[in-house]
Amino acid sequence: MPLYWHLLKAVPSLQIIAHRIVWSALLVAGWLLWKYGRGWLRQTLAIPRAGWMLALSGTLIAFNWGLYIWAVNAGHVVETSLGYFINPLLNVVLGVAVLHERLNRVQWTAVAIASGGVLWLTANYGSFPWIALALAASFGSYGLIRKLVAVPPVRGLGVESLYLVLPALALLLWGESHGDGGFVAHGAVPAWGWGAAALLVFGGVLTALPLIGFADAVRRIPFSLVGLLQYIAPTLQLLCGVLVLGEAFDRDRAIGFAFIWVALAIYAVDGLLRNRAAPALPG
């Protein structure tokens, strides 16, 4: 994802986020209309608490998208990866504090080591890592809400998208009319023309599919396990930032990330051993 959005660096970040919302909304709403008919929205909003909770989760994910795209194109990919390293820790804390999930001693040890790495990075990063902390808080809160609301994942994403689509359309129309759009006016990317437009449209697909998978996963597995799996994406983001985009990664950052990777290894090995020790289900 950071490499994809980097291709659209010349397009203003707000325009990119608006395109993500509009095209993912069209994709998801179209599929829901074909699959369930026109009543899908009414049926979804009839679910208790769905209306206001999906409005809140939609606002959180829009904020997360916007900050992430801005940070990538402003040269802060390594700090965004830090945010998504912090996010699994936050998921573990939320799983214990809000959902009353339990961790064993080894898992608590892993959380403590990873927390030490985060504190080290915060103290030695060179500046307060507000991008990382804001990304972690917004996406962690989004995941918790989607865990709590009993809405099928695609329908939930469809409702979230519909809440956001009108403001996004207004922003796009304003940008195109003032020559700042990347779709029709090509004011931001004159050398690319319709190539940039195609990337913006396909960004809706890249937005919808991972979120559908994520929303489905958080309802099927313990929230603390979601935290473990979410270490994969920030590792890839870190590699993209350092090896491809040439961002700095000094000794202090390496020490902090090493703490987090050790914690991940402890958490993963403990889970593997416990699964092997568990008695097999009959039949």
UniProtKB/TrEMBL annotation:
Record carries keyword Ligase: no
Annotated transmembrane regions: 12-34, 46-70, 82-99, 106-122, 128-145, 157-174, 194-214, 226-249, 255-273
Bilayer topology term: Multi-pass membrane protein
Cellular compartments per GO CC: plasma membrane
Keyword Nucleotidyltransferase appears in the UniProt entry: no
Subcellular location: Cell membrane
Sequence ranges assigned to domain EamA in this UniProt record: 6-122, 131-266
A Pfam family reported for this protein in Swiss-Prot or TrEMBL: EamA
Keyword line: Cell membrane, Membrane, Transmembrane, Transmembrane helix, Transport
Top-level taxon of the source organism: Bacteria
InterPro entries: EamA_dom (IPR000620), EmrE-like (IPR037185), RarD (IPR004626)
Protein family (similarity comment): Belongs to the EamA transporter family.
PANTHER family in UniProt: ACYL-MALONYL CONDENSING ENZYME-RELATED, SOLUTE CARRIER FAMILY 35 MEMBER G2-RELATED
Name of the protein in its database record: EamA family transporter RarD
Protein species of origin: Cognatiluteimonas weifangensis
Taxonomic lineage of the native organism: Bacteria, Pseudomonadati, Pseudomonadota, Gammaproteobacteria, Lysobacterales
